[in-house]
Batch of 4 targets.
Target 1
Amino acid sequence: MVHQRNYDIVAITETWWDDSHSWSTALDGYKLFRRDRKGRRGGGVALYIRGVLDVTGIETNDDEVESLWVKIKGKANKADILLGVCYRPPNQDEEVDNLFYKQLNNVSGSSALVLVGDFHLPDIFWELNTAEKQQSRKFLECVEDNFLSQLVRKPTRGGTVLELLFTNRNGLVGDVEVGGRLGHSDHEIIEFSIIGEIRRNINKISTLDFRRADFGLFKRLIQRVPWETVLGNKGVQERWVCFKTEILRAQEQTVPVCRKTSQRGKCPVWMSNEVLKEIRNKKKMYHLFKEGLISQEVFKGAARACRKKSGRPKPSLNLT
């Protein structure tokens, strides 16, 4: 979905990640910032940010608060943007809420700020900024003290607004849409645009250009190496070093180097037209279901078909 929609930034709450997930969380072309819940299961937040954006993480040192902050560099003479994602579990203690309020006060300052997350405060009526519970009213006070505006108006789970989107600048955030789901989640996705001039890194990383490689010459160079002499009377480790040295020497002569380009807009090879078709159909059925034009069973059927197509594409690839 990230590659299909071509997002620059993806914020996720309730990742349920721990150290055992370190190998499986990478996304090609994106930097990953994550904060896992400490000492117990569940929770956690993450930010995937496109690699060409100039971003630095901000340390908060509040292990109890499940939040993550980064600073996105603006272009020359343009303001930086502070971006945060937060997960507030249901029935969170007031003490942890207070730590979050303090954290928000510390990081915000005079910076342009965008904060998104799952806050589990269903009793807040955002049209009038009122709430039934004292804890929710205190949250509203923090929002007002930091001059934040909340931009989500449609329900994000059932009939309640749990996912929230805040900013402290008029015109900084636009195109806010609620709809669609990620994986098996029962929460709606929030899509929005951050309207600002953001600095993009110039990629200076070099890589091997195998499309212009002379494999014929490479093969001849390798065949000329007197391997019995080079590897004779050596241990396994020494043989490996000698072998690697000869391969790299031949590579330098036969494989040119080019600058690595951005992967922006490129889909993974397993993202076939059939998979894209099912994803689009699922989204279409979802909107029809929300408008009451089709039954829930019809939507679930489309969702199952999408999972079936997108969940099993990789084994069908032929690697030669």
Target 2
Amino acid sequence: MASSQRDAYTYESQNDQRLDELHSKIRTLRGVTTDIHDDVERQNLMLDDTSNSFTAFASSLSQSTRNFTRAFGGTKTWRIMLYVCGVLNGIRLQLACYGSYNTTFFTPYSSHAALHLVELTLTYLSSVLRIQLGDLHNLIVNIIHIYWRKLSY
């Protein structure tokens, strides 16, 4: 009888030990599941923010397109091309006047005056065309600033 009680006690202690191990694994799995859920929630918020940003950009772009169409609705294509070529030549002349200009590879080594004139040209272009360039204007100006900083080193 004592032997069967000892065996029952041994089996019961083994069951308790395995049950504790199972509880530990379940807690670990629950922690991993909670971490995955939190990560998915963060990614959903980030996707919503990105979607909102793209929606705002799309509406801004469509408004700019409508303004462009209104400004040049009756204008022929060649006239628009002349405007664009004139602006690009104006920028080229400004760089040639206020900075050293290499015509082979278009590498201007400019001063701040040339950068300021390019910025004024872009502002003038956006006001003449009655297009709200907004973020695109700032992006172009920032690219020009970075380009000039790299050339000055």
Target 3
Amino acid sequence: MFSSSAFFLPNYKHPPGRKGPQHRSLNFLEMDASRMIASLKEDIEIIETGLSRLNAQREEQELAPTPLRQPNPQSRQ
């Protein structure tokens, strides 16, 4: 686990006396973070599409005429 989110900031300057990650490590972390962000954006699009479809189905059901309820012959007895 990282002690600071500064490792993910490309222009972050570490305070004097504190060593940051090696340049190669930072590039790897940035690349890994950008892949994760791209994947999350794709997931968000999929979720939004699904929610839109569900909302459209719900609206269709709300607007659809409800069938008349047939009386149950056993309930009259």
Target 4
Amino acid sequence: MGSSNSIAVIPTEWMEIFRAMQLKKSEVKSLYKLYKQYDFDRRGGNSKGGMDIVEWLTLIDIERTSLSERIFYAADRDGDHRLNFFEFVVSLWKFCVLGDGSLNVFAFDMFDTDSDGILSEADVHVMFNELLGEHHAHTAQNEFVLADWRKHSRDGSMTVEQFRPFSQTHQALFHEIFTIQRRMRKRTLGIRYWHFITKRKIELSKGYFVQTSEILLLHSDRRLFDALLSDHTNLKVSATKKAMLALTENADSHSEHHHHDHRSDHAPAPLSEEDQLAPPPDHSRHRPHASR
């Protein structure tokens, strides 16, 4: 019988998706060890099991805000406010591999609550409240951002094509997302290791590669993205790769989050330096720099 930390217990179909994400077995094993460490519901005898999202954020020292919860509720596909191991890996991978160029698409997807490819005026109001704070209109800098939004939007709404250049002009708008991402990288596989993962390339079909950090950029062209999933292109995308691509989209949004007030008195420590994976040897001409 295998160890409780053995990846042999992970369903084969999950491992196939993880391979499609370009995650190695050693990385899945490290994430599984981390997940078991934090899955206190099961350790406490809760038969439902799964990692409570709110407590997970608390234990890794990420402030509990609407924004931080939104990032991980996006992976909660069954809406029970817990992450099973598959949801845990997908949420980490999707968020931690984001590069500067794809983070704006991630933000767009998060706040496009009806997934219609448009940030409505109501979506925008929620986005600015969460990214800038509820009193964002009272600072000169934030007033400038809002004015620029009105200038470039159509009736207060924006498509992802319009949103990308706007967000590149206002990178400070996403400071909190960058901060959460850096902490999440640090408390899981480590900042340097996630940086190496972002450089890997995913072969969606023979000869068609996409860098991991840019996978979300496919959402910028909804017609192409939908065509990839429905075989309406000359590219032959395997069923596993289609399933992986589909997971880059957010789970169905919930209008209200059911917050929990309970906290764990004994927070387990994050992975030690020894437990974190050492970055693989670099055989390229130039050594990559550490992530943000």
